[in-house]
Amino acid sequence: MAKLTRIAALSLSGTLLLVPYRAYAQNPNASDLRAAAVESFMAARTLPHNVEARKLMTASLEDDYLRAKRFIRVRSGRVVAFDFNAANIRATSDKEFAVEVESLWADLNEQIFATVYERLKFIRLKDEWLVNDIDFLRSEPRRRLLPFNVVSEKRGKLALGVAKKFMKGVLNRDPQLAMLSLTQSFQSRFKSQEELESFLKGPDDPRFSAYELQTLTQKDPKEMEVKLTLVSVSKGKRGSKSQEARLVVREGRTDWNIDEFELAK
After folding, report:
1. What are the angstrom distances between the C-alpha of 52 and each of 42, 49, 125, 228?
2. How many C-beta atoms lie closer than 10 Å to residue 159's C-beta?
3. pTM, two decimal places
4. How many Cβ atoms from other residues are within 10 Å of residue 153's Cβ?
């Protein structure tokens, strides 16, 4: 199977128009149609809700999906990146096929919590490929932030909380939320509000979709450095790339704020 970018961890907030892939289309290549159906379904699962994904399921799977405990975080998490090897699609007949997929899952704060492996089973109904079953194979939890290299764990958690709030704003392309955590010094480095907002939103496509914390290190009594990995994806497409980044969180008179945010070159 083609592997997702391995990471030790901006929400796809744009709307995708996702419809069931027709089994008979102008493209006569059945393998391509099956791969397109898989990609369409997995892309639907990257959305903040599960409405579009459910449209690509059979009625029986949709019922199971909403009820069953074994499905990973149906309501409190989502796929942020996925991959599969089209060559490994196995057709048992002209009306059924299966394929294994690998995906990165993030929580509601856009932080990666696991790599999940599943087997998707598709059937053809009324000339449309729909997912009929999702077999959970295994989940590999991501490691938590280590080492917690600070003098005071309590102060470290406060600084880390600010970093997480800031990253949620960045990854959801919500500059107003992100700016709530910025020092005046950080904001003054930009010529205009528009320039600052553009910087915080990041690139459109591929866009940053999630992150994973790497280290938290205290530089001086009032400054902590957070290193993290950002995951970028192209909207609706398989695969992902990783980008290292760095935050500096500084303590002010009343709370902690982001004083630096930069991507590794």
Report:
1. 10, 8, 18, 31
2. 28
3. 0.81
4. 9
CA distances for 212 relative to 74, 185, 226, 233, angstroms: 20, 26, 11, 15
Per-residue pLDDT band at 254 (split at 50, 70, 90): confident
Sheet containing 223-233: give its strands across: 148-149, 207-220, 223-233, 241-251, 256-263
Instruction: Give the number of residues written for the chain.
Output: 265
Q: How far apart are CA 110 and CA 107, in angstroms?
A: 5
Side-chain half-sphere exposure of 226, counting CA atoms within 13 A? 28
Q: Which amino acid is located at 133 in the chain?
A: D
Average of per-residue pLDDT across 103-108:
91
Coarse DSSP helix, strand, coil percentages of the chain, rounded to the nearest 5 percent: 25, 40, 35
